[in-house]
Design brief:
By secondary structure, the chain is α/β, with parallel strands linked by helices. It is 35% helix and 22% strand. The protein is built from five helices and eight strands; from the N terminus they run βββαβαββαβαβα. It is globular and about 45 Å long.
Length: 171
């Protein structure tokens, strides 16, 4: 049994395509990325719970409830934006229910790590109206928009004061 469990949410799905541009649907991109991130996490000894593994729609409330019931330590919902204006949404933005405390620190760490990897840091944004952030009860509530890297998640799992345990995960 792993020391940590992460709930991964591939945004949208089923009848909800999310952002669409030139035939690309957010629901497909987020599912592909979420499954790839999950595989890497599992190979590094971290348990993973997926809110979906196929093209199905679940309400945000159900996703939050299922993630809560999974016993996960961290909730990550992966999304991407699109626009007809080139590079309008080029970068990473982390959304949190409340921009205070440890979850805000973790969100900023994620953005800083991705900025160091070459992504534009679009900041941390407080969104109290998002059901998955409001209803998810993990110690960390966050939602990653656009791209994420597994090294960031592993780094946070290894270095977070709230989740600091002996870990065999290689960074």
């Amino acid at each position: 049994m792993a020391d940590y469990k992460i709930a991964l949410d591939a945004g949208h799905g089923g009848s909800d395509p999310g952002a669409v541009y030139k035939g690309r649907q957010e629901k497909e991109d987020t599912l592909d990325l979420t499954l790839a991130v999950g595989d890497i996490l599992k190979k590094n000894g971290i348990d993973v719970y997926y809110t979906r593994t196929t093209d199905e729609y679940e309400t945000p409330f159900k996703k939050a409830t299922d993630a809560n019931n999974s016993g996960a330590d961290l909730f990550v919902s992966i999304h991407r934006n699109s626009s007809e204006n080139p590079n309008q949404y080029s970068g990473v933005e982390t959304l949190v229910y409340s921009d205070t405390g440890l979850k805000a620190e973790v969100a900023r760490n994620i953005n800083n790590q991705l900025e160091d990897a070459g992504f534009k840091n679009l900041g941390v944004d407080e969104r109290k109206n998002l059901v998955v952030l409001k209803r998810t009860k993990m110690p960390f509530l966050l939602k990653l928009d656009l791209l994420t890297t597994i090294k960031t998640i592993i780094y946070l799992m290894k270095n977070s004061t709230a989740l600091h345990k002996q870990s065999q995960t290689e960074y």
